[in-house]
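Reviewer 2 asked us to include a model.

Predict the structure of this chain.
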Amino acid sequence: MLSSNVSADRRGFMKACLAGALALTQVARSWSDKPQRFQVGFAPATDGTLDSYWMRMKALSEVGFRNIEVDNGMIKIAESYASKPGEFRERMAKLNLRLAGVNQPYVFADANTAGAIKEKNALIGKFLKDVGASYLGWEGALAPGATGEQVESEEDMRRIARLASEEGKHLKEQFGIRFTYHTHSTFGFRRLLDLTDPAYLSLNADVGWLLARGGGDALEILRAYRSRLLTIHFKDFAPNKEWNDRNTHGKGAMVVPGQGAVNFLGIVDFLKESDFDGFVLGEYIGPGNYDFVRSPREVEIYPKYKEYFAGTLGLKL
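Predicted model (C-alpha cells):
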C-alpha cells in the first residue's frame, strides 16, 4: 500500500513538473494575445564589397529572412545601383528579399558637412524610393570625442537638430522616405529628439548599443520614445564576456539575442501591446566580433537568430 502511494505521488510529481514546463513554454511565447504587426528582418555586415552583400543575401534568403537593412557607408550600394535600380530590385526579388532601408554614417556635428549631407541624402533617397524601401538611417555618434563620443553643447545640438529636421522633411516630401536616428549609445539622442520635429525624424533604437554605451534600459527607452520608433535593432550585450578582436583584448561583447542582458521577451511584449508596426532587425556587429562579421563566417549566426526569433520569441519572419 505504501509502495502504491509512493508511486502515485511520484506520478503526480512528474505530471506537475511537465505541466510547469509547458506553462513556462507558454509564458515564453504567449505573453501577449495581440498579433505581431511589425516586420522582422536582418541587418548584415559586409566587407565593403558588393560580392559580400550578395553572398549574405543568398544566405539570409535560405534561412528565411525577408526584410533587409544594410550599412551604405562601406558598401555604397545606393551609389552602385543609383542608375540601375531595376537590376537591384529584380535580383532581390529572385531571392524573395526586400530592402527595408539603409544606414549612412554622418558627422552632423561638423557644420562644414551640411552641404555634403544634403547631396548624399538626395542620392540615397531617390535610390530608396526607386527600389521600394522605407527609410534612411543616420548612423553613429552625434559628435566624436576623445573617448569615441561626447554630448554636444546646446548651441550645437540645436544646429544639428535643425539640419536633421530639414533633411527629414526633404526626404519625406520628395521621396516618401523616412529619416531615422540610429542610436549607438545613450549620449545625446534624448535631447536630439526633444529638439527635432517628430514628423521628420524617427528613432532606430539599437538595444545592444544602448546597454553597452551608457547602460541604458532598452525597455524604458522604447516606452519613453514609442511615438518616435520606426526600427529596432535586436542584438544582445554580455557585459562580462571577454574577447579578442581587431588585435585588441576587451570585456563586454555583443552576442546573439538571449545570451546577454537585454530583456527581449519584455521588449516583444511591449511592441505587441503597443501595436508597433515598424521593423525589428537582427544585427550582430559590435565589440568582440568586428573581424567575424566582416568575414564570410557571419552567415553562421543567421540560423541562430532565426531560432531565437521564431522559436523562443515566437515571431513571424
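Residues 1-30 form one domain. Residues 183 and 189 are 7 Å apart (CA to CA). We have added this to the supplementary material.
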